């Protein structure tokens, strides 16, 4: 009888310790490297970024690593802070706000610009992450001007080395790659103005 109580107490202690030692979950964002240079009050035109689409393989909260030619790995403990398509749109919007001094830029769907002068649509074809190597972003994009309906399209294929191992390095490399995609989009908007 006492042996059974001791065994139950030990079992409860072991289960409690196991529950308390679960790995910590980390959340990541694609923050731009620099803040915008101008204030929204000085904007002379407006841009909305979105919608943004990503492959269904990546449309999840877990960060997806490419581990072989036909194999990916989902991390349960390394996740995007918001849906990846929202992260991408927000990062591109922040980069455009920095690169286009006189533009007011917002990301869809949480934008407050009722009738933007330009809309940027982004279709991410690849968003590969290889830890301790490089990331690849392949994005098709279109810039549509509201006045006259002119649309210009482009494709940005960027391979950006990671500056180390681990998820922090992968996320930072994706941020740098999206900066380069944003520069391509910004150059197109400049030619349309």
Short description:
By secondary structure, the protein is of the alpha/beta class. It is built from three helices and eight strands; from the N terminus they run αββββαββββα. The protein is elongated, with a radius of gyration of 22 Å.
In terms of topology, how is this protein built?
Elements lengths: L1 H19 L5 E3 L16 E9 L8 E7 L2 E10 L3 H16 L3 E5 L10 E13 L3 E12 L5 E11 L5 H26 L1
Parallel strand pairs: 1-4, 2-5, 2-6
Antiparallel strand pairs: 3-4, 6-7, 7-8
Descriptive terms for the model:
three-stranded mixed beta sheet; alpha/beta; five-stranded mixed beta sheet; 193 residues; Rossmann fold
Number of E-type strands: 8
Query: What gap, in angstroms, lies between the N and C termini?
Result: 85 Å
The CATH homologous superfamily is named: ABC-type transport auxiliary lipoprotein component
Q: What percent of the residues sit in helical stretches (DSSP H or I)? A: 25-40%
- Runs with pLDDT <50, length 5+? none
So, CATH architecture?
Answer: 3-Layer(aba) Sandwich
CATH structural class? Alpha Beta
Biggest pleated-sheet summary: 5 strands, mixed
Instruction: Provide the gyration radius in Å.
Output: 22 Å
**Structural class designation:** alpha/beta
SSE pattern, N- to C-terminal: HEEEEHEEEEH
Overall pLDDT: 87
CATH overall fold name: Rossmann fold
């Amino acid at each position: 009888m006492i042996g059974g109580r001791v065994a139950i107490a030990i079992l409860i202690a072991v289960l409690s310790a196991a529950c308390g030692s679960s790995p910590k979950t980390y959340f990541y964002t694609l923050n731009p490297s620099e803040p915008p240079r101008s204030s929204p009050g000085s904007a002379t035109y407006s841009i909305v970024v979105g919608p943004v689409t990503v492959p269904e393989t990546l449309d999840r909260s877990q960060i997806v690593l490419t581990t072989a030619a036909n194999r990916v790995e989902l991390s349960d403990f390394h996740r995007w802070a918001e849906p990846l398509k929202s992260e991408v749109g927000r990062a591109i919007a922040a980069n455009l706000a920095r690169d286009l001094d006189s533009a007011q830029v917002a990301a869809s769907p949480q934008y407050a610009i009722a009738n933007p002068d330009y809309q940027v649509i982004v279709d991410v074809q690849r968003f590969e992450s290889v830890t301790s190597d490089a990331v690849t972003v392949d994005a098709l994009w279109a810039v549509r001007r509201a006045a006259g309906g002119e649309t210009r399209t482009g494709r940005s294929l960027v391979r950006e080395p990671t500056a180390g191992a681990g998820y922090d390095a992968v996320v930072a490399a994706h941020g740098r790659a999206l900066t380069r995609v944003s520069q391509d989009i910004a150059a197109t908007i400049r030619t349309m103005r």
